[in-house]
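Ticket #4471: structure export looks truncated?
Reporter: QA, pipeline team
Priority: medium

Steps to reproduce: submit the single chain below to the structure queue and open the exported record.
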Amino acid sequence: MISNIKRKEINTSRLKVSYIEKGDTSKDLLILVHGNTSSNIFYLRNIEELSCDFHVIAPDLRGYGFSEKLPIDAVQGLKVWSEDLRSFLKALGISKKPHLLGWSMGGGVVMQYAIDYPEDVASLTLVNPLSPFGYSGTKDEKGTRNNEFYSGTGGGTVNQAFVQALRDKLRDSSNPFSATSVLKSYFAPDYKIDPEWEEIFVDSMLQMGIGDDFYPGNYIPCSEWPFTAPGDKGIGNAMSPKYVNLSSITDINPKPPILWFRGAKDAIVSDTCMLDIGYLGKLGYVQGWPGDEIFPPHPMVTQTRFILEKYMQNGGTYEEFVFEDAGHGPNVEKPKEFNEKLVSFIKNTK
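Actual output as written to the record:
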C-alpha cells in the first residue's frame, strides 16, 4: 500500500524512539507529531506525498506505537513528550530548524516545544489541537478553572469500557467501545474509511500502553462534581489543565508563523465535544450535572482562537484553515487538500 517507507529506531537520552522517515535530507525538515490513541501510522498517506517537498520524520510518542513504553509522569504535563521530542532531534543530529506539525494532543506537544525552544522552530501547524488550557475542566476563553480540584479531568473521567476494550484488544465493530468503533468518531459522520486503512489504524491504536502509567492514568476522589480529580500518572492526567497551560505561547520570541487546521465536524476537540464531561453532563448523559455556571462545556475551539488572536496581537501571525466536511482527522479524510495547503503554507513562510 505504501512504498519505500521503513520504520527506524534510535536511542535518545530519554528513551528508544520508533519513527518513519522519508525525503531528501537537503530539503526543509517537517516533523509530524501524532495525537492520543493513535501513532505515526496515521500520517502514512501524507508522508508519501509530503516527502516530495520535505524531509519528513514522524516519531511515535512515548506510550504509543513502537516507541519504548516508559511511564508517563503527568505532573510534567506535555513536557513529557516535548522533551522527548527535543532529545529525539538531538539524537538524530538535526541542525536545521524543523517545521513542527501536531495533531490533537500532538498540537499541544508542539506548542509546548515552541514555548521552550522558540528559536528552534521554523513554523507550527496545529491540527485540531488540544486546547491551550488542557482537556476539560475550564470555562470561558481565558481558561478559568471550574474549581480548585480540576475535577472532571484526567484519568478518572475516561470511559472505562473503552479502556477495557483496548486492554482486551477488541476489534468487533458491533461493540461500541472497541477500537474499530471509536475510530469512526475521529472522522466526519459521512466519511467512509477504506477497510484496509481501518485495519492499519486499529492495529496502531491497540499498541498504546494501558494502565495507570499510560492510558488513562490514575485518579483521586474529590468533593466536586463529577467527584474525581486528576492523579499524577498517565496520559489522561498529562492533558489535564492542572498540569497544562500553554497560554505563554503568546509571549515567545521569535514567533514562528502558525497554521491552524480545523475540521468543522470534529467531535473530539470542539466547543461541543462528546468526550467532555461538562458537555455530556449538559446533555444528560452524566447524572448530577451542576449547571453551566459551575461546570459548563469546555470551549476548546474558542480558547484556541483566543490565544492565537493574542499571539497575533503580540506580533505573531496565524491562519485558520477549515475543512468543512472533515472531522478530527483531516489528514486522513482530506489528504490531498491537507497536503497542498501545508506545502503552500510552509513555502510561504520563507
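Status: closed, not a bug. The export was complete when the record was re-opened. Leaving a note from the reviewer for reference: The first strand starts at residue 7 and ends at 11.
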